[in-house]
Task: inverse folding
């Protein structure tokens, strides 16, 4: 019987592990996985890094920015494709929101392949998001 995932807050997550789980999920298609200094900066500037591990192996990560008062932006939610559909993403979202404070509004921009996932975990679509893409 496979081990149960262990969920925790890991503010010092190693960039190599972060890159590895991004590659094992579909999120690597939209993240600069070959730019280690940029990914390191992304991790160190995060307000919350929630992880899921099975037998010590990182199988999921949520990275968020928050003011802990009003809003929480869930920038990255990545679960190893081999471990998807087991509730890991839902638990990472919940841990992130709990850590930021349930009084905050949790916000994310869905990856195209994940748009159908978020209604199943209780999130509501919001159609007026506006962005200016980085260079």
Result:
């Amino acid at each position: 019987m496979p081990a149960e995932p262990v969920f925790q807050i890991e503010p010092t997550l190693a960039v190599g592990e972060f890159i590895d789980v991004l590659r094992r999920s579909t999120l690597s298609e939209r993240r600069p996985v070959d730019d280690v200094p940029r990914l390191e900066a992304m991790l160190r500037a995060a307000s919350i890094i929630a992880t899921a591990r099975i037998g010590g192996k990182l199988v999921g990560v949520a990275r968020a920015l928050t003011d802990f008062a009003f809003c929480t932006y869930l920038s990255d939610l990545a679960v190893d494709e081999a471990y998807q559909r087991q509730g890991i993403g839902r638990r990472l979202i919940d841990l992130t929101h709990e850590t930021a404070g349930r009084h905050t509004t949790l916000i994310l921009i869905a990856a195209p392949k994940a748009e159908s996932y978020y209604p199943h975990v209780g999130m509501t679509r919001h159609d007026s998001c506006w962005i200016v893409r980085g260079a």
About this structure: The domain at 6-121 is CATH 3.40.630.30 (Aminopeptidase).
